[in-house]
Amino acid sequence: MATIVGAATALSASKSFNSRKLHLRSRRSLSVSERKGSFLVVRSDGSVVHKAHRAQKLIANAVATKADSSAASTASKPGHELLLFEALREGLEEEMDRDPTVCVMGEDVGHYGGSYKVTKGLATKYGDLRVLDTPIAENSFTGMGIGAAMTGLRPIVEGMNMGFLLLAFNQISNNCGMLHYTSGGQFKIPIVIRGPGGVGRQLGAEHSQRLESYFQSIPGIQMVACSTPYNAKGLMKAAIRSENPVILFEHVLLYNLKERIPDEEYVCSLEEAEMVRPGEHVTILTYSRMRYHVMQAAKTLVNKGYDPEVIDIRSLKPFDLHTIGNSVKKTHRVLIVEECMRTGGIGASLTAAITENFNDYLDAPIICLSSQDVPTPYAGTLEEWTVVQPAQIVTAVEQLCQ
Amino acid sequence: MSLTTSTKFAQPLPLNTTSSRSKEHKLLFDPFRTNSFLGSTHKLRFNSLSKSNQINLHRRSAIVAVSDVVKEKKAKSSTNLLITKEEGLELYEDMVLGRAFEDMCAQMYYRGKMFGFVHLYNGQEAVSTGFIKLLKQEDSVASTYRDHVHSLSKGVSARAVMSELFGKATGCCRGQGGSMHMFSKEHNVLGGFAFIGEGIPVATGAAFSSKYRREVLKEADCDHVTVAFFGDGTCNNGQFFECLNMAALWKLPIVFVVENNLWAIGMSHVRATSDPEIWKKGPAFGMPGVHVDGMDVLKVREVAKEAIGRARRGEGPTLVECETYRFRGHSLADPDELRDPAEKAHYAARDPITALKRYMIDNNLVTEQELKTIEKKIDEVVEDAVEFADESPHPPRSQLLENVFADPKGFGIGPDGRYRCEDPKFTQGTAHV
């Protein structure tokens, strides 16, 4: 187990602003239409040691929007400010309050409060059975969650690190994914499997995995990736309420993002993408942490006269082809930026989906920027070259828009 | 050592018939010495975990309880019958159903009515019947790939199981599961798990639900028990050990039933397992471990009563090793060339159905005629199941994608902005996904 709590430092935006309605029209009651988000700033390098060396490159402050920013004081705004892990916790707690069959199981989720504190304090409030500390036996406690889900509970299974869920692959694939079907629809598996993944800060190869590429071809499973405190809470609640098994991807470097979220209850749609920044010239599709690299690049691109449209696809399976398609029809150019592996990754599937559905609207071949096909190296420099950096995004957009 | 002499077969476990191994097998205790249904009245002295906080103490007593099983039974047996006539007839009918159903499956397989891997239960009926006939409808059963008979014992109709095997829409899983994936929500059959060991965590989860309902949801009357069946091969798999640990740790209402038929396809149990006495692994995890003659439905039933009772009373899990034998190959595709004919003959002579029949007749519980009536009835049930399955419709194309997601919104939103599942033709798989 590697604990990097606090490695990512979040700075609240020095300038907050009301964005225009950045969200798509609401197709379903679950979706959000009225959110006025203040953008968050993540500075993904919190380490004093590396600061001088890396700060410039790694600051990913997502302030490049078209909306005028105003220096309104945050204090007078409605809502409350939370870090991303607190937003996940708030969503979890609300659902546990609402429905007594909702329970949590995993390694160190109870007394320890979760390796990233997502379940902090919940064991005290709900007891050891509802917030169950399990032995280190991923395949078995995941299977136990599935058995509990089949017999009336709504468990949330936490992988202490997403990579550990490779040990539960059999249960996730055979039973989570297939059992509803093979049982002829008799048994439902309303389970949520969640945990921290992605390339963190020099965690080494095994703790830096992006499992979405492995899980995406399992039938019967939905996958979502959260990227802001707002959507983290909304997706957590939606995943818990879904009758389908849902895998919720969190990113180790995003837990300390800060954002003001509404006081009133809301739930996000599991199937909808999120418009981050409307634009005209090029569609940039991204998710999870890469959203911030994209937004950093977008700032540069705006200064260079480009007007990129940024969409956080959020739903990794299935894709929201409506939002994506509308954007492609408008910009005719697509850049995909992901942290997933290049071979067989989410970007590859997305490229295929766009080519199949919207090829006639494309004026240029799709460019897909992914992580290098390499076991994530430990050394900081090598690790940095493994994942896509903002400068590469700028270059790719320039190339696409030639 | 040579194992060709008939006396060696009195040894329950260390049968090694394939080679002239020089290695001396450790002799196990011999539950077959009393080759009859004698003496199953003895109440197993299960140790109640709640009564003792001293781990060493309860472990020791758990082991003692096991070794007592065989010896102490003799004394009391002749005075009391183990079952009533009604119980005997119920057990007999269930075992005969299991046998006749499986024999019919073999016929239908060779006639091309069913395909794939079909694993038959012949020979092991005493285990399924001995345990499952003691369960309530609300109790759950998790099985393996050899699951037809567990489903039948639990109450799923022969029609629904046969139809599933025929791949028809009227099957218990609409033809979507097949031989190795039998489910019934109504009867709480949780599957039907084709990979070794994966059903054990699911069963553990069902047992967790029972505890959760009682303690968190305050459903005081929820005393539901889960029984997990699996084989000797599974007992070398991590999920077995992991779940023994969790079930004992949280005192879950579950019974782990090992159907040790001595062979994991072609791998002899003693060639695969450092200590072939599986029941011993129970005490190692703080739960009673029991060895029972799995060819004797009455002995199985006695052990099952205790184990299920413990679970129902909230006293925690039990590991039961039933020593049994399959009369056919691993599956219908298995040429079954490795097992020694003498070994097969030994167990064939211990056929659990014949043994129960003899016990009931010897004790004047039933007449030959009454049993014949049951056999005839079961023949008709199985014939009817085949007819029903044969005449049932194949699944229509519209069924193809119906059960991929419980909430079909999981198929997502199409380019037109509507959920794909709103397309009426969607479930046929012809709409572009």
From TrEMBL, chain A:
GO terms for molecular function: metal ion binding; pyruvate dehydrogenase (acetyl-transferring) activity. CDD domains: TPP_PYR_E1-PDHc-beta_like. Its main location: plastid. Keywords: Chloroplast, Metal-binding, Oxidoreductase, Plastid, Potassium, Pyruvate, Thiamine pyrophosphate, Transit peptide. SMART domains: Transket_pyr (SM00861). It catalyses: N(6)-[(R)-lipoyl]-L-lysyl-[protein] + pyruvate + H(+) = N(6)-[(R)-S(8)-acetyldihydrolipoyl]-L-lysyl-[protein] + CO2. PANTHER family: PYRUVATE DEHYDROGENASE E1 COMPONENT BETA SUBUNIT, PYRUVATE DEHYDROGENASE E1 COMPONENT SUBUNIT BETA. This is pyruvate dehydrogenase (acetyl-transferring). The lineage of its organism: Eukaryota, Viridiplantae, Streptophyta, Embryophyta, Tracheophyta.
From TrEMBL, chain B:
Its cofactor is thiamine diphosphate. It is an enzyme of class 1 (oxidoreductase). Residues 94-395 form the Dehydrogenase E1 component domain. Its EC number is 1.2.4.1. One of its GO terms (molecular function) is pyruvate dehydrogenase (acetyl-transferring) activity. It catalyses: N(6)-[(R)-lipoyl]-L-lysyl-[protein] + pyruvate + H(+) = N(6)-[(R)-S(8)-acetyldihydrolipoyl]-L-lysyl-[protein] + CO2. Pfam families: E1_dh (PF00676). Keywords: Coiled coil, Oxidoreductase, Pyruvate, Thiamine pyrophosphate. It comes from the Eukaryota. One of its GO terms (biological process) is pyruvate decarboxylation to acetyl-CoA. Residues 364-391 form a coiled coil. NCBIfam families: PDH_E1_alph_y. The pyruvate dehydrogenase complex catalyzes the overall conversion of pyruvate to acetyl-CoA and CO(2). It contains multiple copies of three enzymatic components: pyruvate dehydrogenase (E1), dihydrolipoamide acetyltransferase (E2) and lipoamide dehydrogenase (E3). Tetramer of 2 alpha and 2 beta subunits. This is Pyruvate dehydrogenase E1 component subunit alpha. It comes from Quercus rubra (Northern red oak).
